[in-house]
Write a structure and sequence with these properties.
The protein has 763 residues and is α+β, with helices and mostly antiparallel strands. Helices cover 31% and strands 13% of the residues. The longest helix has 35 residues. The chain is elongated. It is found in: Cell membrane. Its EC number is 2.4.1.16. This is chitin synthase.
């Protein structure tokens, strides 16, 4: 609740700054118009513009009733009518008064010092070009609007806005303009006063004739009471507009606006330039080898073509005949070695890895620490006398489960010492499948770095066979050696997708062959899921075998033999009649594997399901699960580029501090709908701007679940490993099943990928 309150409060503040701050701070400001914006639909009076486009004037001399004075015959549109509605006997009382020497001949109606008008009631142009005219058309005082009815009609008009002038208009103008308290005064309008009938203060002419004051603000010069009265009188009579100024509130609003604008733009530009730095400087050095920018651009074009047509443009590697999916070993695994070390590489089925004949582990000096190179370094160390249990299969065929030969040709090691992290017990060698893939020598580095064993997790829900096969084909045909990759498929319940004639588990099992145990004989095992209530108990089956290609989708010469583990969440007997037995969500599928890796890493007690997973991995690979260091996670509707594993694993090997990474995600059906077209832009910006920026600082906040790789454990030093995805704390937090708040539901139901990334970054 506290977090929601903070979110609401912050959102409210941002909404107020965006929509309400200007209205709250910049108050009392009316619309303003420049003189050049005054059209014939407006009439200006005392510096204010009135829209009289639809007005009608009552009948008067020379004007028919209902006439719009803006147009013929009056033609007042776009002109200044200040003299038609003069402010008299206000601030000017006692300053502008009848001329006493001509009081007997005075034509202007007056009462002592009060006058009916000061200037002839004439229209004049806004640019001040109209010359004074003291004649009247019909009678003396025509159009002066001195009656109370005329005044009331004027006061009832709605002001459209103030006429404003900029300082450049005032200072560079040929007109005699001054500024007082924000009002613009046209001193040349004083020429319209008939000096034969009216007298005014001498200060009027001083201000008018002093050229040093033209175009300046005289507010601070007029300080005495008399001077202020004079200035206020001028503002009532010859004001033509206001100066272009803002209130304190409006200035504050503008400052906040510009600060926000600069802040947002700075973030955008900083992210853009940092992303460019990543693209041009960091990215070429990533992966298996350094790449020139030109070559990167060409590769990007090839990937774009591949994303549009994966089947025809995928650069798949041709597989040697003895390593293809349809090759079956004629000898049983228990009678021959599957590991080719320095001494036995020639003698144990040499035809499978004939391309490795030039490799020798005798003088090999590993540059990076992996599970395999660490075992080699410890086994060949002259000072380390501790025994090292082999991580490979050659000794497992020669002895029992606890009597392992040295895989690197050194037979002088004590095989009973099990004190190091590399000393691991194994299962019985007779469990190993006869077609288990042999391991190459430790010094075989086809891409310039030691190979590490990788699990490829594919989570399935309701996808069809074509979608799942496409994903598995792309993973199986990656150019990363098949001896170092294992596909793990987890089916989230007994689900039959829309339009499918088979359930998802049946589809996945149909993509496997050479089962370790006939699929009809596989037994379900219980495990604790991440659900609540009765669904906390779930059951799953573990199937082990090899990937079954379709010759129509992948040519025979491109088919690698790939071991596959399929875990089917079948549900308890009580839920077999429900619509989705066994379904617990993608996060539950991930937890099954992560919890298993945690037990393996910490040598904890396993459930029956986890032990069955361990036994299945051992049986189809000849490797204990401890050997696997990286975990690729993809969705069942994702295709991966053939060299993705090679480059992603390279980064993990070369940089032990990397805990997770992701590749770029593209849309293959970008033209299918407007939604997919939007996703193209969204994915591109997300990867090339957001994630590239974060990657420079080593903290990508969200690795997408559709295509990411995590490190299971990382080497800190020789014989020292730190768990990452297999970390007990991460597994415990990620397996939270009590979702009693909206925040937890957002984390674990909608944004589990970001949550997992955050958990890993927090370690």
């Amino acid at each position: 609740m506290a977090l929601l309150s903070i979110i609401v409060m912050v959102g409210g503040i941002i909404a107020f700054l965006t929509f309400g701050f200007t209205r709250a701070a910049c108050v009392g400001v009316t619309r303003r118009l420049q003189p050049k914006d005054i059209s014939t639909g407006y009439l200006v009076i005392n510096g204010r513009a009135y829209n009289l486009d639809s007005s009608a004037h009552p009948g008067a001399a020379g004007i028919d009733a209902g006439t719009n004075i803006l147009y013929p015959p009056v033609n007042a549109g776009g002109k200044d009518a200040t003299f038609l509605f003069q402010n008299v006997n206000g601030n000017c009382k006692g300053l502008i008064k009848p001329k006493q020497s001509n009081i007997d001949n005075l034509k202007i109606p007056h009462d002592n010092d009060e006058l009916a008008w000061y200037m002839p009631c004439k229209l004049f142009d806004l640019d001040g070009s109209t010359s004074p005219n003291f004649t009247y058309d019909y009678y003396y005082g025509y159009a002066c609007h001195t009656s109370s009815s005329a005044r009331d009609a004027f006061y009832s008009l709605d002001v459209s806005g103030d006429v404003y002038y900029k300082w450049d208009d005032i200072s560079n103008s040929s007109r005699n303009l001054l500024v007082y308290n924000g009002y613009v005064l046209d001193m040349d309008l004083l020429d319209w006063i008939d000096k034969d009938e009216i007298e005014y203060p001498e200060l009027f002419d001083q201000l008018k004739n002093d050229k040093a004051m033209h175009g300046h603000d005289i507010s601070v010069l007029l300080t005495s009471p008399h001077e202020k009265q004079v200035a206020n009188c001028l503002a009532e009579t010859i004001k033509v507009g206001v100066i272009d100024v803002d209130t304190i509130g409006c200035i504050a609003s503008d400052i906040v606006l510009y600060i926000s604008y600069v802040f947002v733009l700075s973030i955008v530009f900083v992210k853009f330039f940092v992303a460019c730095y990543f693209k041009w400087v960091i990215a070429p050095k990533q992966g298996a080898s350094t790449t020139a920018l030109r070559d990167m651009a060409a590769r990007d074009k090839n990937i774009d073509k591949w994303s549009d047509d994966p089947k025809s443009t995928a650069p798949l590697t041709t597989v040697p005949e003895k390593r293809r999916a349809n090759f079956h070993n004629s000898k049983h695994a228990r009678t021959q070695s599957r590991y080719f070390g320095a001494k036995n590489r020639q003698s144990k089925n040499p035809e499978i890895f004939q391309e490795l004949q030039d490799y020798s582990t005798t003088d090999y000096k590993p540059k990076y620490i992996t599970m395999t190179t660490e075992a080699y370094m410890i086994a060949n160390s002259q000072t380390n006398k501790r025994a090292t249990k082999t991580l490979t299969r050659n000794s497992m065929f020669a002895g029992g489960a606890n009597d392992l030969d040295n895989p690197f040709g050194d037979g002088n090691m004590n095989s009973n010492a099990l004190t190091s992290t590399n000393s691991m017990k194994t299962l019985a060698s007779d469990l190993i499948h006869s077609d288990a893939i042999p391991q190459p020598p430790v010094d075989w580095e086809p891409y310039g770095y030691p190979l590490v064993h990788t699990m490829c997790l594919v989570t399935c829900y309701s996808e069809d066979e074509a979608g799942i096969r496409t994903t598995l084909d792309s993973i199986a045909t990656t150019d990363y050696p098949n001896s170092h990759k294992l596909i793990v498929i987890i089916c989230d319940g007994m689900i039959t997708g829309s339009g499918n004639d088979k359930s998802t588990p049946d589809v996945c099992l149909g993509l496997m062959t050479d089962f370790l145990v006939p699929k009809e004989e596989v037994q379900p095992y219980s495990y604790v899921s991440v659900a609540q209530g009765a669904k906390r108990h779930n059951m799953a089956k573990v199937y082990a075998g090899f990937y079954k290609y379709n010759d129509e989708t992948v040519p025979i010469e491109k088919q690698q033999k790939i071991p596959v583990i399929t875990i089917v969440k079948c549900g308890t007997p009580a839920e077999l009649t429900t619509s989705k037995p066994g379904n617990r969500g993608k996060r539950d599928s991930q937890i099954i594997l992560m919890s298993f890796l945690q037990k393996i890493t910490f040598n904890d007690r396993m459930t029956e399901l986890e032990f069955e997973m361990l036994k299945s991995i051992w049986s189809i690979t000849g490797l204990m699960a401890q050997n696997y260091e990286t975990l690729l996670m993809v969705d069942a509707d994702t295709l991966v580029y053939p060299d993705c594993l090679t480059h992603m694993v390279a980064e993990f090997v070369k940089h032990p501090d990397i805990m997770g990474l992701c590749g770029e995600t593209k849309i293959s059906n970008k033209a299918q709908s407007w939604v997919t077209a939007i996703q193209v832009f969204e994915y591109y910006i997300s990867h090339h701007l957001a994630k590239s920026f974060e990657s420079v600082f080593g903290s990508v906040t969200c690795l997408p679940g559709c295509f990411s790789m995590y490190r299971i454990k990382t080497p800190k030093d020789l014989n020292v490993w730190v768990p990452i995805v297999s970390n007990a704390d991460i597994v415990a937090k990620y397996s939270e099943n009590v979702l009693d708040s909206l925040h937890k539901k957002n984390l674990l139901l909608l944004g589990e990928d970001r949550y997992l990334s955050s958990l890993i970054c927090s370690r």
